[in-house]
Design brief:
Rossmann fold; 6-stranded mixed sheet; 4-stranded parallel sheet; metal-binding; coiled coil; ribosome binding; GTP binding
Length: 386
């Protein structure tokens, strides 16, 4: 049974089915609210699948009180999915949930094709997007850690690859050997990451030697963070209309005025229910956020789910202990709002009065990173923080 590899996570030609299940404890609120949140999560999952470059052939949804222990979706639904897999020549089924190793293995037996859970999907995207040495090391470490919990009897032996362990399931006679191989590789990667971390710490200290304030751009993926970073810093960071277009951290010195300059950093975006193990795996990258003086929290002003996404970002910030850092909310993409709303009070800018302490007051500005509208207001606000 083929597994995604560390060097290439998903083949672009793969025919993919996406499965999402609404569990009774998935969301809070009224039935209408829960359904709306579920549909938004399904749409986001579809974007994640498309971000891999795969061919999303069909999507399936289901409702259950709780996840089935062995098959997550239950026997009847699994058999129904198996029929759809055969009819549509599906090569990969993605579940928008975190599956246990047993559930994943059982589903692959029933569906007769590869199965990837939400963690594996996000890791697949990360593997495609990582550009820096640190990013690639973090992705490979996270992939191997995820795989190690899925080494069970009944799989084929790990495929040997030059330059890294091939991610194919091991066979029974090789199980312990393959576990040791993966553990050895994990240890090597952690040592390499520690070296990279020390080098990055040295560079960070050099940047901060002039006592410049550091502003970290954070926000939900695809909120326009890299576009805004490029607009402000005149850099050339990859900015695309897709989820997780940016994975690596970039830092630039930003001259706000003849008297004021700051360090501006851009990093990976967040998503709903970002698996804890991914937050842990990318702690080195996210550390740039946790050590910032001010957070520029970028929000897509035209997104109907913006309030939920703001909370999702704040949840991750709390997990990396960055929730006490002063935030400035930047409502981006106002050019996509209906003209009547672009200058309305629906997203009124809060005053720029700031308490100079560890918490500080939240300020909000409305901008368009594409048109440049509101950027002077943003720079003025940043000068007050600097």
């Amino acid at each position: 049974m083929t597994r995604f590899r560390t060097d290439k996570s998903l083949e672009h030609a793969e025919r993919i089915m996406l499965v999402s299940v609404l569990l009774s404890d998935s969301y809070t609120g009224s039935n209408e609210s829960r359904e709306r949140q579920f549909q938004a999560a399904c749409a986001e999952a579809a974007e994640l699948v498309r971000a891999t470059g795969g061919d999303l052939v069909c999507t399936e949804t289901a409702k259950r009180d709780k996840a089935h222990t062995a098959l997550f979706v239950g026997t009847g639904k699994a058999e129904e999915l198996a029929d759809l897999v055969a009819q549509n020549q599906i090569e990969l089924v993605v579940f928008n949930h975190e599956l246990s190793p047993t559930q994943e293995r059982n589903l692959e037996k029933v569906l007769q094709c590869r199965v990837l859970d939400r963690v594996g999907l996000i890791l697949a995207i990360f593997a495609q997007r990582a550009q820096s040495q640190e990013g690639k090391l973090q992705v490979e470490l996270a992939q191997l850690s995820h795989l190690s919990s899925r080494l069970v009897r009944g799989y084929k032996h790990l495929q040997s690859q030059k330059g890294g362990i091939g991610l194919k399931g091991p066979g029974e006679t090789q199980l312990e050997t393959d576990r040791r191989l993966i553990q050895t590789k994990i240890t090597q990667l952690r040592r390499q990451l520690e070296q990279v971390k020390k080098q990055r710490e040295t560079r960070r200290k050099a940047r901060l030697s002039g006592s410049l304030k550091t502003f970290a751009i954070v926000g939900y993926t695809n909120a326009g963070k890299s576009t805004l970073f490029n607009r402000l810093s005149k850099a050339d960071v990859l900015a695309k209309d897709q989820l997780f277009a940016t994975l690596d951290t970039t830092a630039r010195r930003l001259y706000l005025s003849p008297e004021a300059s700051v360090i501006l950093t851009d990093t990976v975006g967040f998503v709903q229910d970002l698996p804890h193990k991914l937050v842990s795996a990318f702690s080195a990258t996210l550390e740039e956020t946790a050590l910032a003086d001010v957070l520029l929290h970028i929000v897509d002003a035209a997104d109907p789910e913006l309030e939920r996404k703001i909370q999702d970002v704040n949840d991750v910030l709390a997990e990396i202990k960055a929730d006490k850092i002063p935030q400035m909310i930047v409502y981006n993409k106002i050019d996509l709002l209906p003209e009547a709303e672009q200058n309305s009070g629906s997203l009124k800018t809060v005053g720029f009065s700031v308490a100079k302490n560890n918490v500080g007051e939240t300020v909000a500005v409305r901008v368009s990173a594409v048109s440049g509208a509101g950027l002077d207001d943003l720079r003025a606000a940043m000068i007050e923080w600097a």
